[in-house]
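Two proteins follow. First one:
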Amino acid sequence: MQKALRDKVSLKNPWHFLALGFGSGLASKAPGTFGSLAAVPLVILCGLYLPLGLYIGLAMVASFVGIWICGHTANDMQVHDDSSIVWDEVAGMLITFIAVPITWQSVLVGFVLFRLYDILKPWPISYLDKHVHGGIGIMADDVLAGVFACLSMQAILYWQWLPG
């Protein structure tokens, strides 16, 4: 992130702290990957200890509140979607693991699938990325990447390609 943008955000601001993925979005290279990695402990803890209904509720809250968190931080930075804003990756990772048993194998495969969908942006993810703006635009492509990764995980589990 450029110094001029870094001066406009503060990890002491709770909205910026969340939008920057607990600080992981400040990584100089691959902030989206680091944001996704920062979500892994949250995914593991919630996936192991929350009932499915609460987990789904958490993923939904993270997604809907993320619209405001990311939009607010982007406005403070005076940019549309700076790569340091990675709360959308956190929400996308939570979505990826809905109804997925947590094992080291599932975490690895889910992480890779989410990153592939997020980076490659197949249609309609690419459409949302290019045509939807503001907080909704920041969140929408990663939420959909999470949905695609979750559906892929469910198919993998159905076909018993992963232990679980």
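Second one, unrelated to the first:
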Amino acid sequence: MHRAISTHVFLRQRLHPGLLDAMLRGGAEGIEIFAARHHFDYTDRAHVREIATWFRSNPVEYNSLHQPLYSDAEWSRDVGPTVNVIDVEKARRIDAMDEIKRALEVAEMIPINKMVLHLGGRDDKWNNRALEHSLTAIEHLKAFAHPLGVRLLVENLQNEVTEPGNLLEILRVGHFDSVGVCLDVGHAHASVGVEAAFTVLKDRIRELHLHDNHGSKDEHLWPGSGTLDWPHLMQQVGELKEPPVGTLEIHHELAETPESVSSRAAAAFALLEKSAGQP
């Protein structure tokens, strides 16, 4: 499994090369940039250029972009996600796709090869409308991302739309053979269960979001801090046909420093290797 870490751990801060250096020191082979304007302002050419310069100077290979969840430049932890590509209102769906496309354009400067896409918010239900809007969004964004060399990965969330069986149905009905899955193991652990999610989605998994919780809510803790069975998870990872990227996606509210992220990421990667039976 390829090692990566998401800048989500530093979401409260403006992204800069020093934070990226800290993740690299922790053993990351790839970076997932969390697209939020207050953190990584994908609309600011100077900021994008600064981050692109760092990537050109550092040997990281497995890089992805997490779609924007918020359209505003101002953000606080009390602000709910506003970018929803399957919103019931057409104007909001169009605005959401436009915002995601603005973020995707950074692939012209930064070597990103995947984008993680959310289908719906926490309360979205599974029905024909959700299926139709999901198909439209994926088709539209896939066409936009392809010339940029970016592959779409849809993520399982804590909603009905992205339950493993429904997620697979969306990909099957749309004939989206080139679209993969980012399996969020924390979301699965707090809902349908990790083993059930692997069983349904294993042929489509290309990336994992790795974090822990206690099985009831989405806490985004460091691996080993909750109740997720990491040895069993790593056994399932070893059975996948294609080695995925394993991305640590840790909660920004843990208030980590660059130094603590380096050391805790290294410890997390060591835990995963031990769980996989590697020396």
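SUMMARY FIELD: Strands lie at 2-6, 30-34, 64-66, 114-117, 151-155, 180-184, 205-210, 245-248. The mean pLDDT is 95.
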